[in-house]
Design brief:
This protein is mainly alpha-helical. The chain contains seven helices and no strands.
């Protein structure tokens, strides 16, 4: 059940994330992501619907893996799962860290705009005939940062759950 909940939460995060990044650079989707996820193209003509589908497909599995991992790691020294409240806090930690690091990705993209393009982006964007290369590159940094944020958030959430478990094992009255 935790794996399913993690997948749904991550999928919803992906939908919202890609709606925001679509607003920043529609070209990131129309020139790149729509081709990458062409198999999932909906009957709808709306590019925003397709961006949402892509957001869900790109993140649900990450959430499932993260949820499964934090459930297993949190049980290493205990015979039962931590309380649902602890998992809810862990998911909030992961979401928050991912969001904060995605914001840093946006800031990095803004900084790159002011300092010029990275050479590795130029040829790639030219191949796809990108018109607004600054926005495209910014969204690329946001997307990459979001995945990094998910990894870092997972580590922080695991530490939280392990410390919480340790506190419950040594001083159950303090854990409440």
């Amino acid at each position: 059940m935790i794996t399913f909940v993690g997948a749904v939460i991550a999928g919803v995060y992906g939908v919202l994330h890609d709606q925001v990044t679509y607003s920043i650079s529609p070209e990131y989707f129309t020139r790149f992501k729509f081709y990458q996820f062409a198999y999932a193209e909906p009957d709808s003509e709306s590019p925003r619907v397709f961006a949402g589908i892509i957001g869900f497909l790109a993140t649900w599995w990450v959430g499932a893996i993260i949820a499964w991992s934090i459930a297993r790691v949190s049980m290493l020294r205990g015979k039962k799962l931590p309380p649902v409240r602890d998992f809810a806090i862990a998911f909030v930690i992961i979401f928050s860290v991912s969001f904060i690091i995605a914001c840093f990705g946006w800031l990095y993209g803004q900084w790159r705009r002011s300092t010029g393009y990275a050479l590795e982006w130029l040829e790639w964007m030219d191949t796809m005939s990108v018109q607004d290369s600054e926005a495209f590159m910014t969204v690329g940094y946001i997307h990459n940062s979001s995945y990094l944020g998910g990894v870092i958030g997972t580590v922080v959430a695991i530490i939280f759950l392990r410390l919480r478990r340790r506190r419950q094992n040594f001083a159950p009255e303090l854990a409440e």
